[in-house]
Design goal:
homodimer, 201 residues, mainly alpha, Arc Repressor Mutant, subunit A, 2 domains, 9 helices, elongated, DNA-binding
Chain lengths: 201, 201
DNA sequence: ACCTGAACACCGTTCAAGT
DNA sequence: ACCTGAACACCGTTCAAGT
C-alpha cells in the first residue's frame, strides 16, 4: 500500500517526463524532468530503476492511445478504411512527439512495459487485419505485428531527411506501404512473420 | 598542407571509430576510440569538431559503399533485379553495423558530410529507378530518394522487436515494400516526392 | 516509507603546456 | 602545426541523512 505522496509524485513525474521528452527529445536530463515535476532528482530513481525505464513507461503509455483507437475501429463498418485509419493514427503518434521515434529505435525490445503494450497493439492490429482480409483489402500473409512494425517504419523513414517531421511526407510512405499490403499482385514473402514471444528467451 | 602524422592520425581515428561504432553502437566513448587509435583523446577534437561529426563521417563512408554498388548495378542487364539488389545491399549495410541504424535516425540531416553522400546515393538510385521504370518494374511516381528512405525504413522496422538484427526478418519487410513499388494496382500518392535541397535553408 | 541533495564515476569538450 | 592530458561542466545513478 503506497503512501499518498508517492502515488502523487509518480504521476507528476510521468507527466513531466512525457512533456519534456515530447518537447526536447529523449536526451533531456533527469534533473530537468525532476524540476518540472517539482521533486528532487533522487525521487526519480525511487520510482523508476533507470532513465530508460522511465522512457519506456512514457512510451508504452502513448502506445496505449493507439490500442484504444484500434479497439474502437474494430467495430467500424468499413474494415479496409478502419485498418488504414489505424495505421494513420499510429504514424501520427510517432510524428507528433519528438522522442517517440527515438524511443522506438533506442529502447531495448525486452523492456517489460514496452513488450507488454507492444503485445496489446499487435493484438488489436491482428483483429483489424483479419477483418480487412475478409473484406479482400489486404493480402493474407501479413499479421498485426507486421502492421505495427511497418507503420513505425513509415514514421522513421521521414526522419532521415527532415529535422522537424511535423510535415506530411510520412503520408507518402504510408500510402506506398499500404499499396504493398494489398492482395493484388502480391508476391510471396521470403521469411515468415515474426512473433513477439520468440525473442523473450 | 597537413603534416604527415596528422593525416596518419586522422586515418587511424576513422578506422578505430568505424570499428568501435560497429561493435558497440554509437554510444562508445571518445576515450575508447582514441585509445584504440593509439592517440590522446584531445587529438580526436583536433580532427573532428564534435563526436557527432565523427559519427557522420564514418556513416557517410559506409554510404559510399552503397554508392559504389549502385554504380556497378547501373550497367546490369536486368534493370528490375538491379534495383532490388541495390535495395538489398542497402538494408544489409544498415543491418551489418550496430551503429548504422542509430546513426541514420540520430544524425542531424543537415550535417554536411551526411547530406553530401545521401545526395550521391539518391542520384545513383534515381538512375536505377529510371531504368527499372522503363522495364515496367516500378510505378512511375517513385524517385531514387524514395528508395533510399524506404530501404532505411525496412532496416529500422526490424529493430523494434529484435535486439540483434543479424537475422533475416528485414527481408520480409523489404519484400513487402518492393511489392508496394510495383506498377500493378498502384494508387496515386497523396504527397509529392521529397527533395534533399528543400531542407537546406 | 518516502524524499532529498550531496557525492561518485563517468561523459564530451576545451585548452595551456609541450614538441 | 600538431599532440597531449589535466581541467571543466555536465550527466545518470547511489546513498546517507532527514521527515
Amino acid at each position: 500500500m503506497p503512501r499518498a505522496d508517492a502515488v502523487r509524485n509518480r504521476r507528476l513525474l510521468m507527466d513531466a517526463a512525457a512533456a519534456e521528452f515530447a518537447e526536447n527529445g529523449m536526451d533531456v536530463s533527469i534533473t530537468r524532468i525532476a524540476t518540472r515535476a517539482g521533486v528532487g532528482k533522487g525521487t526519480v530513481f525511487r520510482h523508476f530503476d533507470t532513465k530508460e525505464q522511465l522512457l519506456a513507461e512514457v512510451f508504452s503509455d502513448r502506445l496505449e492511445e493507439l490500442v484504444a483507437v484500434g479497439r474502437r475501429l474494430t467495430e467500424a463498418d468499413d474494415a479496409e478504411a478502419a485498418l488504414f485509419e489505424f495505421m494513420t493514427t499510429g504514424v501520427e503518434i510517432h510524428v507528433r512527439d519528438r522522442s517517440f521515434c527515438q524511443a522506438a529505435a533506442a529502447l531495448s525490445p525486452s523492456e517489460a512495459s514496452v513488450r507488454a503494450s507492444r503485445e496489446r497493439v499487435a493484438e488489436v492490429a491482428d483483429t483489424l487485419v483479419d477483418r480487412a482480409r475478409e473484406a479482400g483489402a489486404v493480402r493474407d500473409d501479413v499479421t498485426g505485428l507486421d502492421i505495427v512494425l511497418l507503420l513505425s517504419a513509415a514514421a522513421q523513414a521521414v526522419l532521415s531527411i527532415d529535422e522537424d517531421p511535423q510535415g506530411s511526407l510520412w503520408q507518402r510512405y504510408l500510402a506506398l506501404i499500404i499499396d504493398g499490403l494489398r492482395p493484388q499482385g502480391a508476391h510471396p514473402l521470403p521469411v515468415p512473420a515474426p512473433t513477439l514471444g520468440r525473442f523473450t528467451g
